[in-house]
Amino acid sequence: MEIYVGTEPPKDEGWTQDPDVFDTWFSSGQWPFATLGYPNGKDFKDFYPTSVMETGWDILFFWVARMIMLGLYVTGKVPFEHVYLHGLVRDKDRQKMSKSKGNVIDPLGVIDLYGADALRMALVIGNTAGNDIIISEEKIKGYRNFANKIWNASRFVLMNLDPLSPTPLPKGEGRVRVKLTVADKKTLKELDAMAKKVTSHLDKFEFHHAGETLYHYFWHTFADKIIEQMKPRLQIPSPQSSPTRGEEAGRNPSPATGRGQGEGDRKAAQYILHTCLATCLKLLHPFMPFVTETIWQQMPKEKQSMLIVEKWPSK
């Protein structure tokens, strides 16, 4: 028996089409409910329909449309509320990556060289829904440098924190009540605004904007400005030093610099650094989970936990 496979039927006489042929997307079209144990599985009852379906725009009518049709036919419900379509990855010359062209970037090789976090950020930044993304090794290197910046800035903060983080709250064993300066309060207000901005972008599926906001805040605000401003305040005061007239150590900061004197002001600086770093790690975790989790496990905290289950900062 001779078998013919092709997109066009054979021109010769006597061929019989195989009657046992089915749409190749039929089984994958049942994925949303079949994988959850339809019809009686606990996961199906708990998680169907899902909230977001993410896939490439090129299979919108092949896969997404069939999942909706089969989901409605079998369960009576649309299988997901939102569909997020990512673009295709192209090289720096906007050419589609293919083995024949020799322009494919091997993700495993890139991860070995620059880390998974750098690759993740390179794929997110500059990638809008439904549009193709341009990626190059130079771009991935840039976010490797960002991961190094996160590591080095965090290392400095950790080296200058006490075993338990200072807090303005009076309760808690080992905690120290601190008085924040006007500049400190402004820093925290800007941090909160940044967290809300990132959250707003994520809620609207603007992942590229969220990533860019975090990149610029951590590098240009936290690392370049806040840490530098806090360095003089982290100096351990000499036991022989005494506050100047009209200034009580850690209570009456200079209105010009926002800096106080003594151990109280040092604790306030530690609190600002700890709060900013912890918030940044939580917000960056969905984008760069490996470096953020590693740093998080070294952070002084009263209870060990993983970042993925930490409370989101803007909530």
From TrEMBL:
This is valine--tRNA ligase. GO terms for cellular component: cytosol. Keywords: Aminoacyl-tRNA synthetase, ATP-binding, Ligase, Nucleotide-binding, Protein biosynthesis. Residues 235-265 are annotated as: Disordered. One of its GO terms (molecular function) is ATP binding. One of its GO terms (biological process) is valyl-tRNA aminoacylation. It comes from Candidatus Uhrbacteria bacterium RIFCSPLOWO2_01_FULL_47_24. The keyword Ligase applies. Residues 184-314 form the Methionyl/Valyl/Leucyl/Isoleucyl-tRNA synthetase anticodon-binding domain.
